[in-house]
Design a protein that fits this description.
The complex is a heterodimer of chains A (113) and B (114). In chain A, strand 4 and strand 5 form a beta hairpin. Chain A has 113 residues and is an all-beta fold. In chain B, the strands form two sheets. In chain B, strands 2, 4, 5, 6, 9, 10 and 11 form a seven-stranded mixed sheet that branches. A four-stranded antiparallel sheet of chain B has the order 1-3-8-7, with no helix packed on it. In chain B, strand 4 and strand 5 form a beta hairpin. The chains are: A mainly beta (113), B mainly beta (114). The interface between A and B is medium-sized, with 22 and 18 residues.
Chain lengths: 113, 114
């Protein structure tokens, strides 16, 4: 059964720092991987989606990579800002579970001014 | 405003009562989903629908009922609410655009069962 893990559970960095959030999954049979942002008390906002055939996707200061064979994805945030403070979740669309999204527990990011 | 909306945003109900959470999307996406989010469990799929009149169970369907008579609406009913169903409920939708099935989420409904 697919399991998605995000480490660390929480991260605090000073403003301006570049940072990397990690996501690992146990079964490489995935259609794609999606990164979301969740602000406190809010819904999930889709940030990036990487198809299983792709290696990376970029949007502004965000870059997500995917290494399907090793079961790993990273979300790189350049020049972090206090407004980036949120919980970041990754989810894989699992081939063997009818295409359902399997979520990690998230990394809570705090960017200090 | 276009997108996906949920109502009510907050609800307090008593054990044993029937509660219906509403979800509406304006994109005409074929797929719709219901998740619950709890500390320590993350997001778990309750039910999903591939099209109007087609629904299927997710990971935690017990105690919930769904229907989808129209593409844009996907209500979730708790037939007899229990305290263990206190949670934040999210509705989502997706469409197989270029095979991506990227999911878009509503703002959530915070449900408390007393």
């Amino acid at each position: 059964k697919q399991e998605v893990t995000q480490i660390p559970a929480a991260l605090s960095v000073p403003e301006g720092e570049n940072l990397v959030l990690n996501c690992s999954f146990t079964d490489s049979a995935i259609y794609n991987l999606q990164w979301f942002r969740q602000d406190p008390g809010k819904g999930l906002t889709s940030l990036l989606l990487i198809q299983s055939s792709q290696r990376e996707q970029t949007s502004g200061r965000l870059n997500a990579s995917l290494d399907k064979s090793s079961g790993r994805s990273t979300l790189y945030i350049a020049a972090s800002q206090p407004g980036d403070s949120a919980t970041y979740l990754c989810a894989v669309r699992d081939y063997n579970q009818g295409g359902k999204l399997i979520f990690g527990q998230g990394t809570e990011l705090s960017v200090k001014p | 405003d276009a997108g996906i909306t949920q109502s009510p945003r907050y609800k307090i109900t008593e054990t044993g009562r029937q509660v219906t959470l509403m979800c509406h999307q304006t994109w005409s996406h074929s797929y719709m989903f219901w998740y619950r989010q709890d500390l320590g469990h993350g997001l778990r799929l309750i039910y999903y629908s591939a099209a109007a009149d087609i629904t299927d169970k997710g990971e935690v369907p017990d105690g919930y009922v769904v229907s989808r008579s129209k593409t844009e609406n996907f209500p979730l009913t708790l037939e007899s609410a229990t305290r263990s169903q206190t949670s934040v409920y999210f509705c989502a939708s997706s469409e197989p655009y270029r095979g991506s099935y990227e999911q878009y989420f509503g703002p959530g409904t915070r449900l408390t069962v007393t």
